[in-house]
Specification:
single chain, about 90 residues, alpha+beta, 3 helices, about 35% helix, about 10% strand, globular
Length: about 90
């Protein structure tokens, strides 16, 4: 389980949202990305990364970084989330 400070989660965007996503959805994306860090596999860098993407139908999918001893073979959290969207037909 990943722990994080409440202040890191309670901050709201300081500028207008040009993407048409309401603040509640942005906050949910933030929570899910932080939570996804718990699934990261990073035995070499020990640097956990989580990502959350919002699909066109409103689903939120997450991903985490996965390292490999052969560095270029690892996958970043964003690619993991996109791959999850593709295989789940979003």
């Amino acid at each position: 389980m990943i722990s994080f400070s409440q202040s890191a989660l309670s901050s709201t965007p300081s500028r207008d949202n040009e993407y048409g996503i309401d603040d509640e959805t942005l906050l949910e994306l933030k929570y899910k990305a932080i939570s996804a860090k718990g699934a990261a596999y990073c035995p070499y860098s020990h640097f956990r990364v989580g990502a959350a993407i919002l699909t066109g139908d409103g689903a939120i999918l997450t991903g985490a970084n996965v390292e490999n001893a052969s560095y270029p073979v690892g996958i970043c959290a964003e690619r993991c989330a996109v791959a999850k969207a593709v295989v789940s037909t979003h």
